[in-house]
């Protein structure tokens, strides 16, 4: 397999592809919210609306052999990584056709074939695992990158600092992607961090580090390609802080007492889809009819996903304790 | 044929690591001071020279990061052995052990396998105070998704590692630090079974069920009891999760009485679990109430006389048996 090149070709086909991916996440998440109110989806549901440019932009830099470790707000990452929308939705329904057989739910999407290793709901808990996946690649001489997503809240966890140190010390090929949406659940960055510049924290561990406008999909893609190319060349980790914003509540239980509606509206004005739409229309890369076509394509995909999830089946309760351990030990 | 060589528990573990690394290039060891220092308990002494720093990895003092890295490396096709200095320190890695290693297979619907071995020292008796002396293996035995081993003999110390590495799921091995200097004449390192308990001494009047660092004390107690006419069977659990319930119930069915000996605290301990299983499934075979000898419910103290008083010992075991039998 070939790793994606460093260069971003902003031609019509690529713009169309980026817009398609942004819309896939946005409309999928909107459908999830709707299905949640219908009680088709239960438990916690964390939507990625507003942050789409981070997953879409960064994933452009990954090849199929690279690994992904994500957080509990990972529907978008799974979608872009190629986990079928139907399998993701069926997982949220709790059906055995779900990508984790209904054992994981919204926060624990897995797809080993896509090298998508969760869905980790312990803040910071995925970072050491990502370092280990990268260590395995390094020790076995494979030229892959492990992409590790986490929020800025993780920077307060010990596992963040332990992993930064280990990855830098052992020169592990990890692309750390901090999705800084300014709130760790409901606690603002300046209420939880003595140093609010997260990329500076990574830099202090001698990790190449940069911050990027996480609301601009092209900026994110350019930075991610630069980062991934550097990792593939040097074998060392790279840290990308994507400054972004969550438009919706932390979860469906969150009344959002901790931030002003005005603040949310201001961020929405410069949302990743609105901006990219404006830019592509202005430059003529895309036309209104392209967007309509993409919307239709996405609507069809999501309708199919809903049908798939609805048609899914419940795993027999007799199978409750399967997959706690391997069926056969070698 | 010449007599087998004398081997210490420490040397047995070291040989097992060496053999595993020679047999399988995916196996590597990482942990605090396993390389240049030679291992906190000198288990890995010499292995750095033999295998180099890529496979004998000194880690920063980051239990969570290097345990998690072991999990990720296992998912990525390696067969890591993670050494955690003592089980007290393993609490800093508990998130990784519990929320990832034990959970990933199930949470992923069977897609993710974590073939990881974590070794750690456990137990008191060396005047190291409360933060280096606890026995937490019983806690770990609470967690579905992991196997918990407690080698009590030199043979098991040397023989349990290879099958643990072959297990597709995480295996925790608790090495009682007082055992490292124990020696035995062992003819090579036979692969030990990691499913079953073992009867270490046959007897007819009572079953003494124990594991790990308490096995020696319990066998010594059985000898003393023999002198007063009490025949004690000693069952070494060996595997704390999954428990070999058949062996436990079988032993109690033979002797109809049971004392459990456990260096863990009494409340919520593995001894409590053993007794519960007997109550559930072996009640009608009992001729006497169940009894146990555990550590006192106190953080293990430093002063020798207090530490001695806190831990199970041979005399306490003898007294418990005699009280139960009324002789």
Automatic annotation (TrEMBL), chain A:
Gene: pdhA
Cofactor dependence: thiamine diphosphate
InterPro entries: DH_E1, PDH_E1_Alpha_Subunit, Pyrv_DH_E1_asu_subgrp-y, THDP-binding
GO molecular function: pyruvate dehydrogenase (acetyl-transferring) activity
Enzyme Commission (EC) number: 1.2.4.1
PANTHER family reported in the protein's UniProt record: PYRUVATE DEHYDROGENASE E1 COMPONENT SUBUNIT ALPHA, PYRUVATE DEHYDROGENASE E1 COMPONENT, ALPHA SUBUNIT BACTERIAL AND ORGANELLAR
Highest taxon of the lineage: Bacteria
CDD domains: TPP_E1_PDC_ADC_BCADC (cd02000)
Record GO biological process: pyruvate decarboxylation to acetyl-CoA
Native source organism of the sequence: Pontixanthobacter luteolus
Enzyme superclass (EC): oxidoreductase
Protein name per the record: Pyruvate dehydrogenase E1 component subunit alpha
From TrEMBL, chain B:
Superkingdom to which the source organism belongs: Bacteria
UniProtKB keywords: Oxidoreductase, Thiamine pyrophosphate
Cofactor(s), by name: thiamine diphosphate
Transketolase-like pyrimidine-binding domain residues: 7-182
Keyword Oxidoreductase tagged: yes
Transmembrane helix in keyword set: no
Pfam families (alphabetical): Transket_pyr, Transketolase_C
Gene3D superfamilies found in the cross-reference section: 3.40.50.920, 3.40.50.970
Gene Ontology terms for molecular function: oxidoreductase activity
InterPro entries: THDP-binding, Transketo_C/PFOR_II, Transketolase-like_Pyr-bd, Transketolase_C
Database matches in NCBIfam families: PRK09212.1
Protein name: Alpha-ketoacid dehydrogenase subunit beta
């Amino acid at each position: 397999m070939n790793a994606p090149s460093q260069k971003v070709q902003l031609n019509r086909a690529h713009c169309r592809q980026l817009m398609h991916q942004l819309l896939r996440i946005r409309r999928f998440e909107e459908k999830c919210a709707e299905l949640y109110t219908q009680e088709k989806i239960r438990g916690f549901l964390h939507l990625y609306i507003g942050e789409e440019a981070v997953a879409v932009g960064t994933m452009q830099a990954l090849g199929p052999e690279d690994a992904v470790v994500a957080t509990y707000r990972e529907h978008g990452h799974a979608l872009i990584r190629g986990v079928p929308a139907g399998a993701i939705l069926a997982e949220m329904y709790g059906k055995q056709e779900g990508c984790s057989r209904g054992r994981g739910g919204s926060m624990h999407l897995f797809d080993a074939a896509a090298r998508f290793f969760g869905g980790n709901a312990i803040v910071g808990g995925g970072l050491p695992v990502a370092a280990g996946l990268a260590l395995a690649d390094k020790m076995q001489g494979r030229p892959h990158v492990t992409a590790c997503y986490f929020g800025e809240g993780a920077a307060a966890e010990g596992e963040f600092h332990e992993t930064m140190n280990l990855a830098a010390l052992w020169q592990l090929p990890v692309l750390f992607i901090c999705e800084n949406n300014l709130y760790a659940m409901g606690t603002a960055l300046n209420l939880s961090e003595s140093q609010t510049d997260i990329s500076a924290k990574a830099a202090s561990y001698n990790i190449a580090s940069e911050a990027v406008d996480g609301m601009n999909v092209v900026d994110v893609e350019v930075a991610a390609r630069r980062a991934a190319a550097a990792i593939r060349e040097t074998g060392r980790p790279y840290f990308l802080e994507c400054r972004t914003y969550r438009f919706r509540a932390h979860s469906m239980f969150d009344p959002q007492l901790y931030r002003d509606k005005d603040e949310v509206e201001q961020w929405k004005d410069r949302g990743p889809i609105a901006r990219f739409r404006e830019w592509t229309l202005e430059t003529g890369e895309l036309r209104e009819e392209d967007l309509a076509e993409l919307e239709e394509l996405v609507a069809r995909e999501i309708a199919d996903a809903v049908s798939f999830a609805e048609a899914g089946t419940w795993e027999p309760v007799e199978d409750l304790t399967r997959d706690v351990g391997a069926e056969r030990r070698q | 044929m010449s007599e087998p060589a004398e081997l210490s528990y420490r040397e047995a573990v070291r040989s097992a690591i060496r053999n595993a690394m020679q047999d399988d290039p995916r196996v590597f060891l990482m942990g605090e001071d396993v390389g240049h220092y030679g291992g906190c308990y000198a288990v890995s002494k010499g292995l750095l020279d033999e295998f180099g720093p890529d496979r004998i990895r000194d880690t920063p003092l980051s239990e969570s990061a290097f345990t998690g890295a072991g999990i990720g490396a296992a998912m990525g096709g390696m067969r890591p052995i993670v050494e955690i200095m003592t089980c007290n320190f393993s609490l800093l890695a508990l998130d990784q052990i519990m929320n990832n290693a034990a959970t990933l297979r199930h949470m992923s619907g069977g897609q993710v396998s974590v073939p990881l071995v974590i070794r750690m020292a456990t137990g008191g008796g060396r005047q190291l105070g409360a933060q280096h002396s606890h026995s937490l293996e019983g806690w770990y035995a609470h967690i579905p998704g992991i196997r918990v081993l407690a080698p009590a003999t030199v043979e098991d110390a040397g023989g349990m590692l290879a099958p643990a590495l072959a297990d597709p799921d995480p295996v925790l091995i608790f090495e009682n630090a007082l055992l490292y200097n124990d020696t035995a004449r062992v003819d090579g390192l036979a692969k030990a079974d990691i499913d079953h308990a073992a009867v270490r001494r046959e007897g007819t009047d009572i079953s003494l069920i124990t594991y790990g660092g308490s096995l020696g004390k319990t066998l010594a107690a059985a000898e003393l009891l023999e002198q007063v006419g009490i025949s004690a069977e000693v069952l070494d659990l060996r595997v704390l999760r999954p428990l070999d319930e058949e062996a436990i119930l079988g032993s109690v069915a033979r002797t109809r009485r049971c004392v459990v000996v456990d260096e863990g605290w009494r409340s919520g301990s593995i001894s409590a679990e053993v007794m519960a299983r007997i109550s559930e499934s072996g009640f009608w075979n009992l001729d006497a109430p169940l009894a146990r000898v555990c550590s006192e419910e106190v953080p293990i103290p430093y002063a020798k006389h207090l530490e001695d008083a806190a831990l199970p010992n041979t005399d306490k075991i003898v007294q418990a048996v005699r009280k139960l039998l009324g002789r």
